[in-house]
Amino acid sequence: MPGFLSHLLTVAALSSATLAFAQQTPANAPRRAFLVCADPANPPYSSKDRDGFENKIAAVLAADMTVDVDFFWFAGHKSFLRRTLLEGMCDAVVAIPEGLPATVTTRPYFASSFVAVTRSADTRRFVSFDDEWLREARIGLPLVGNEGATTPPALSLSTRGFTEHITPFPMWAEDGASQPPQGRIIDAVAAGEIDVAFVWGPVAGFFARKHGGALRIEPITHDPRRPEVAFVFPMAVGVRKADVALRDRLQRALDAHTVEIAAILRESGVPLVAAAPEKVKP
Q1: Which of the following CATH numbers is that of domain 4-110+233-280: 3.40.50.300, 3.30.70.1140, 3.40.1280.10, 3.40.190.10?
Q2: Residue 192: its pLDDT value, please?
Q3: What is the pTM (predicted TM-score) of this model?
Q4: Which one of 1.10.760.10, 3.40.190.10, 3.40.50.720, 3.30.70.1450 gives the CATH number of domain 112-220?
Q5: Tens digits of per-residue pLDDT, 245-260?
Q6: According to the model, what pLDDT value does residue 147 have?
Q7: Per-residue DSSP letters for the chain?
């Protein structure tokens, strides 16, 4: 999902759509292509090489609708939804939190969570944010830096007064950068530069693969001291509110290809968790 943290944690900044694809191309009219908004450099979600799981799932959905798939590329950290889907630049976004404001979504086709990443050889295991060893641990956190957004683990750490021994890691490449930096925080754990990283599960799962069994990934599903903060998010395909018919067509496509889509997520290293919708909706 392009810019997951961006549109997950700054939903209040979303505005209503000014252009509706449903008005331009009725849902029952022949479609020439399924146009998806995606980040061109946001592994494991999407890339211009079309090797991200969003790219692959979009291709599955398009094939079910017997149309080609194409992408409108836009950086995920730059007010992504407002400047792409909600402005009519595409038909859908393949992975957004279920029920995200200003959209209508399919039923979730996977749920993941934030995770703690440590070295497998480290005897210290993450159980909760109250673990005593965290007070002296070198901690890595994603540097979101978008419209004041922060991550659920950062909120839990700040609740406990953890302000030292924290290293921020950029999640977004500067314009023109040759390599996206999302995996740097995982590499830092493997290299012993930090002791634990708290990151979004699909990012951790994807970039941990190259380290074999050297890393341990522990899902974080809740924090008793911050019960209002969600750590688990059911993910769905999202369209504009006017495009209910398209949403329903995409739901039928998802239902018809559950095995294939599950295999795509598994190949991308996405750690899956069970979702309790009444507790984890953003």
Answers
A1: 3.40.190.10
A2: 98
A3: 0.85
A4: 3.40.190.10
A5: 999 999 999 999 999 9
A6: 44
A7: -TTHHHHHH-GGG----SS-HHHHS-TTSPPSEEEEEE-TEETTTEETTS-SHHHHHHHHHHHHTTSEEEEEE--TTTTHHHHTGGGTS-SBEEEEETT-TTEEE---SEEEEEEEEEETT-S-----TT-GGGGTS-EEEEE--STT---HHHHHHHHTT--SSEEEEE-SPPTT-SS--TTHHHHHHHTTS-SEEEEEHHHHHHHHGGGTTSEEEEEE---TTSTTS--EEEEEEEEETT-HHHHHHHHHHHHHTHHHHHHHHHHTTPPP----HHHH--
